[in-house]
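Figure 3 (text version): structure tokens given as input.
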């Protein structure tokens, strides 16, 4: 099949008279454009843009045109019906020194082949086995807690979700390396946004400044751990039926195996994409429950004494959906037009950056009544039925949507269920939980709690978490 990105612009009809030249938007300041507003408060800037200029707003950063598309029909064009006219956003493209060229960042035929190869690992038939791993690892984590101690659940849950993804997909127990891998990943995630700026990128990747040295050391740590996982599997020659065995056993049309560097990139991508988002979503859910005792009590009633299938917990399901609505860890998704393309009646020239934002869409009063309230019931009463497809898309949409969405939903529910039925926490009051939008949406200072009780099976939960 021809590379979809090579379709010439002649194949896209452009009746120019139908298109107004460009969407409305702020001028910003000379040269920098809207960079200062964007830097100051990205979430507020995007929300304000959509309120002031409508479903397609234009701004610029260093004279590069950027569109914020919040109109659901136009957003669907970008991610779904005209997806082939776009490539991944610049934010991810510059992440290649970290992710490599794995599923998240690759394009065209290469991406298509890799997606097909990786997909069976996320098939729903595999999820039952993963659920056991998720519950067992969470139980092990709870058993390590002590009543009376203070914990940063953000850090703890990052480690837990990392161990789970490594065990489920690569049958690797990284608990021994979890601290060094966790620290290295944290550095990579922290430094990632700086790669967007060419001068800072050069400094980070080439010059002997502390931040760059730390990043490069962290990448070497990750590479060493991943190389170790791959080498020991290769040496064993075993087919354990997991994703790593699938990657190692794959052959291209010429019968060639996948190069080690490509296996490394896929493993790194899944390590990164597969744990931070889930950990953040758990943190936001626990913080929301701590602030909403009525919801928390209702959830406790559903969980109390329940020992069946995680799928049979409808209120837990609604709690997770509502948390992903208010705090979508992937708060913005970017694309770049690979050629001229018509979006929502406007004409995006090749090279235009386009941003879609679950944060803005999912807090829109036009789609969700009382949009800032944490009300899981809205997912049960039919209120959220009939929404346009792009009013709620925490896992993206279209061909590049999250391959781990089913895995993540199961993991969120299994961890919450296990955690909340075996331990009690009280959130430390007065913490700054302002969402900090980096590549993902994280709480500024972590999420600190006091563990008030740990027992193998608590009959129900009190008002505190
Ligand atoms: C709450 C948890 C998660 C959220 C909110 C989330 C969100 C997303 C979003 C929005 C995208 C689309 C990005 C785009 O269109 O540019 C995406 C892609 C992706 N996600 Fe997730 N994700 C989560 C968990 C996971 C997990 C658990 C895994 C793997 C174990 C994973 C692996 C991936 C991969 C590999 C892609 C790229 C898919 C492709 O381009 O074909 N994610 N994720």
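Below: residues designed for each position.
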């Amino acid at each position: 099949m021809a590379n979809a990105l090579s379709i010439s612009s002649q194949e896209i009809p452009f009746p120019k008279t139908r298109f107004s030249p460009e969407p409305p938007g702020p001028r910003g300041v000379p040269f920098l454009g809207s960079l200062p507003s964007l830097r100051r408060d990205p979430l507020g800037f995007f929300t304000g843009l959509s309120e002031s200029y409508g479903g397609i707003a234009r701004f610029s950063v260093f004279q590069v045109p950027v569109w914020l598309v919040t109109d659901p029909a136009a957003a669907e064009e970008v991610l779904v019906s005209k997806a082939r006219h776009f490539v991944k956003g610049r934010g991810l493209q510059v992440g290649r020194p970290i992710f490599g060229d794995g599923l998240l960042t690759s394009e065209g035929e290469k991406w298509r082949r890799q997606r097909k190869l990786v997909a069976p690992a996320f098939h729903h038939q595999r999820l039952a086995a993963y659920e056991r791993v998720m519950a067992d690892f969470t139980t092990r984590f709870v058993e390590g807690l002590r009543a009376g101690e203070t914990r940063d659940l953000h850090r703890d849950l990052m480690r837990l979700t990392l161990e789970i993804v490594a065990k489920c997909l690569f049958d690797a127990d990284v608990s021994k390396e979890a601290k060094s891998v966790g620290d290295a990943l944290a550095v990579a995630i922290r430094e990632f946004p700086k790669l967007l700026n060419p001068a800072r990128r050069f400094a980070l990747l080439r010059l002997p400044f502390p931040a760059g040295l730390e990043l490069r050391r962290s990448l070497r740590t990750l590479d060493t751990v991943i190389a170790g996982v791959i080498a020991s599997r290769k040496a064993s020659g075993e087919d354990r039926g997991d994703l790593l065995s699938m990657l190692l056993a794959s052959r291209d049309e010429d019968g060639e195996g996948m190069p080690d560097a490509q296996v490394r990139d896929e493993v790194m991508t899944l390590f990164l994409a597969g744990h931070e988002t889930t950990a953040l979503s758990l943190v936001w859910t626990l913080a929301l429950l701590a602030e909403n005792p009525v919801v928390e009590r209702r959830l406790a009633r559903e969980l109390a004494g329940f020992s069946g299938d995680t799928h049979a917990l409808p209120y837990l399901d609604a709690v997770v959906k509502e948390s992903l609505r208010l705090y979508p860890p992937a708060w913005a998704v970017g694309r770049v037009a690979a050629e001229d393309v018509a979006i929502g009646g406007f004409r995006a020239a090749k090279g235009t950056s386009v941003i879609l934002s679950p944060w803005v869409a999912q807090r829109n009063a036009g789609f969700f009544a009382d949009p800032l309230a944490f009300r899981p019931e809205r997912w049960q009463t039919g209120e959220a039925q009939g929404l346009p497809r792009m009013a709620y898309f925490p896992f993206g949409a279209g061909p590049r949507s999250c391959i781990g969405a089913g895995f993540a939903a199961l993991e969120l529910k299994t961890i919450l269920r296990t955690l909340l039925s075996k331990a009690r926490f009280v959130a430390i009051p007065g913490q700054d939980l302002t969402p900090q939008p980096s590549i993902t949406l994280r709480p500024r200072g972590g999420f600190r709690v006091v563990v008030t009780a740990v027992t193998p099976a608590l009959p129900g939960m009190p008002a505190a978490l």
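The longest helix spans residues 210-236.
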